[in-house]
Amino acid sequence: MQSQEDVRGGLRHLINLQGLSRQTLTSILDRAEIFRRLPGQPTYSGQELRGVTIANLFFEPSTRTRASFELAALRLGAQVVNLDLQSSSRVKGESILDTLFTLEAMNTDIFVIRDSEPGVPEYLINHVAPHVSVISAGEAHLSHPTQGLLDMLTIRTHKRHFAGLKVAIVGDLRHSRVARSAAQALATLGTTDVRLVAPEPLLPDEDFPGSQRFTRIEAGIAGADVVMMLRIQKERMKKSTSLDDAAYFRDFGLTEARLTLASPSVLVMHPGPMNRGVEIASEVADGPHSVIREQVNNGVAVRMAVLAIIANTLAQQRRAL
Ligand code: NCD
Question: Residues lining ligand 1, judged by CB closer than 6 Å?
């Protein structure tokens, strides 16, 4: 894979958390803390992205990620264009590369891309002009780097350190780019107790770094400091896979009763969108341990940080020419 960093070590693209150092991850989280404003506070409003044009290309549905990339860009003074599958000419048969070149011809500096096919972000970084960057907003089941970062910011805010934490990731791990990016970031930041908790068919084929597998939720979340719930992603399952929502909730749903098995100060996370009553009980989603809305709030701050850092790399590159 082509490096995400330029020759000077500046972050140029972000398509995967694998291979990024602890220092790089930490500096993104530190920058995000500067941009973060709690709901009710006036939002950060800056000019870090003045003169920068960002194209959000979403070839898969998105609510949180798309809205937060757009808000992040606008709050830092960027110009933004949003294209989705319905309105883009990709459905008219134009290749993704033609879409890229068209928007490059309009002086786009940063592409934010979400696609259900593996390999699209990397394909784009191999084809963009030298002064253009690519950020993944979700690649198939493989990678969702800004989600991984916002999850780390949420954990760090409450737990301060990653070493010594017990983190259970529960649910449809097989199809989850959220879980893959979180596991990569946790490993880099020093968490060594990561539990993958799911019924056998929903566990991933590959091993995640430093993780153990559990097929009973009670054992998997015992003593956990963080319980990260995942959505059942029916749209990524083979048509033949039948999954009964009620049975899943009975065996794997996070209920208040089950949550008492975790640490008394456990954080409950979910990337959204949630299937209430399937993977998580409403009382838990809205309960005192839930940091689900904080995750959404942190998402904007993390995306502001990533955009600002990448725009800075592009500006330095331009100055060096
Ligand atoms: C996730 C995604 O799209 O990967 N959602 C998100 O970005 N907040 C998870 C999901 O769809 O289940």
Answer: 64-65, 138, 144, 147, 177-178, 231, 233, 271-272
Give the tens place of pLDDT for each residue, 227-251. Answer: 999 999 888 787 656 679 999 999 9
- 205 vs 197: CA distance, rounded Å: 13
Q: What pLDDT sits at residue 237?
A: 80
Q: Could you identify the atom of ligand 1 that is nearest to the CA of residue 147?
A: 7
For the entire predicted model, the pTM comes to 0.96
Residue 80's pLDDT band (cuts 50, 70, 90): very high
Q: Do domains 22-144+296-320 and 145-294 have the same CATH topology?
A: yes
Pick the CATH number of 145-294 from 1.10.8.60, 3.30.200.100, 3.40.50.620, 3.40.50.1370: 3.40.50.1370
DSSP assignment of 246-283 equals HHHHHHH-B-HHHHTTS-TT-EEE--S---BTTTB-HH
Distance 7 CA to ligand 1 centre (A): 32
